[in-house]
Task: structure prediction
Amino acid sequence: MSILKIFKRVVFGKSQPYVEKEICQEIKEIDDLNSYPKLNEFIKGKRNYLSSKDVFPELKVFEPVKTPKIPTLDQIYARLKNAEKSIPLPAGYKDTCICIRMLIKYKIKRNENYEKWLKRLYKVACEYDFFASQPYLYELREPSFNLSEVLPKKEISCLKMPYHEIGYRNSTILNKTDIKWLVSHFGEPKAHIPVNDFHKETFNKAVGLLKEERKRQKNNLWKM
Result:
């Protein structure tokens, strides 16, 4: 029996006095308990807590690559590659921005052109703000970053993010130095608008798809 089935049968619709007894009965039915070593330790009393990753090993979690205070160019690129793989996780976007800032500073110190990386920084920041401009979906009661479940990574990366039409004032991730670089290279934008408003049609479409997905998941859960 799958872990999800057991959680559903034990927790949903059960009053507390019955939960502990039923867990003991249901836990014996797990066919692949050895695939969940930390869950096994928890059941045996050797562990006091469980994370989502412990129960669902396939859960995607961002694991950053550490770099020293003064990294080499290769170390920055290695960290950037790792961060970009984790997009559209929020931490993936944030670490990508950190890496790009490191590259820009590296270029500035050597009096090299960094416009390409500045454009990349702005694009990544806008993709992050597509979700973060409205951080919570109140109707669905979940964070906006969950829209990435129904919005393919390729579709997000294909969204146009014109600096002069979107601006920077509504960004939740660009810092003062980023803005200084942007204004210095591209001037002041003509307007400032939240990214999810600029791409309102795509955002609303994704919300609708997520609603449908949650409804489907709920129906499938109760069929177990």
In short: Residues 73-215 form one domain.
